[in-house]
Specification:
Blueprint lengths: L3 H17 L11 H14 L15 E4 L2 E4 H6 L6 E3 L4 E3 L13 H17 L8 H8 L3 H12 L5 E2 L2 H6 L7
Antiparallel strand pairs: 1-2, 1-5, 3-4
């Protein structure tokens, strides 16, 4: 499955969550960085004791200076058919006529919806955090601390995080 299809659905659900929490879409801060962080938290929230959840799809997280980054999505965000995602905000593309869920596997849609529902219960305001607060929160995760430290020891600023680390570590979704 092309990762952009479920990513577009996640962005649509983030917009709904953002608006439900009182965010002003016209002045949104749903930037590339913020969506990258929220994608990580949603993916991590879908995992449980040995089950990959959304990490089965979003399986390419790297430890980078700004936390966990799904590198394939990071590289392809601008290819979204619905959204223009910039350094500062999210906007609909000029030809936007409403979102259509193109995910063929209903289990994927259910996993995304369930992960977002769980995150809302734990921290409904997570979607309103500014991007750098989300970065700080991701820096609390042991997977990032361990792998980024290892990357730096090898003179690098990124290194792949094994999915097993994300699955097995305590999940931190609020301060």
């Amino acid at each position: 499955m092309d990762k952009l299809i479920p990513f577009n659905y996640i962005v649509n659900q983030i917009i709904i969550w953002y608006n439900d929490q009182g965010g002003d879409f016209e002045k949104n801060d749903l930037s590339k960085l913020k969506l990258t962080k929220l994608l990580f938290f949603i993916s991590a929230a879908s995992t449980m004791s040995g089950k990959l959840g959304l990490l089965n799809i979003f399986d390419n997280f790297y430890a980078m200076p700004y936390g966990h980054v799904e590198s394939e999505i990071q590289d392809r965000m601008e290819q979204s058919i619905y959204y223009e995602i910039s350094r500062n905000k999210l906007a609909f593309k000029p030809n936007y006529n409403g979102f259509v869920n193109n995910i063929e596997d209903t289990l994927v849609t259910e996993m995304i919806d369930s992960a977002i529902k769980d995150l809302k219960k734990i921290n409904p305001d997570l979607v309103l955090y500014d991007p750098f607060k989300l970065v700080e929160l991701s820096h609390e995760w042991q997977s990032w601390k361990t792998v980024f430290s290892l990357a730096k020891r090898h003179g690098k600023y990124s290194m792949k995080i094994p999915n097993e680390m994300i699955i097995s570590e305590p999940k931190i979704f609020k301060y």
